[in-house]
Structures are given as structure tokens and as C-alpha cells.
Amino acid sequence: MTRPAPQDVPVGSDSIRLSAFLKFAGILDSGGDAKEAIIDGYVTVNDEVERRRGRQLQLGDVVGFEGRAFRVQA
Known about the structure:
By secondary structure, the chain is of the alpha+beta class.
């Protein structure tokens, strides 16, 4: 199966918390939704399941959710 090309999401800084990124990028609507998706193991960072909502994302990290991919950009 072909993996989708990540969509670039400019965040305006060198890092951002995972839960904040999910809301900022419009992937999820609320902090509560982001928290649940992360804790339940539905979110990946660089192809690894990530269960820490406070995880600091760096430029170039790729977040996956429901078959879509989003890359953190400056």
C-alpha cells in the first residue's frame, strides 16, 4: 500500500506540542479530542504510535492520523 505524501503545516516556530499541533493543523477540533486520540493510540509521530500529548514536535516530524500525514514546517 502506498503511503500518502505528508501535507506541510507551517507552525511559525521550531517546535510545538503534539496536542497543540493536532488542533492548529485542523486535524482535530478540540483539545479533548486530541487528548483522547493520543491516549487511545490513534496518532503516530514518525511512524511510531505516540501516547504523550505533551510530546514536543520538531521541524520535519511527520504526524499521522486516520491514514493522513502532516509534516511540521517552519
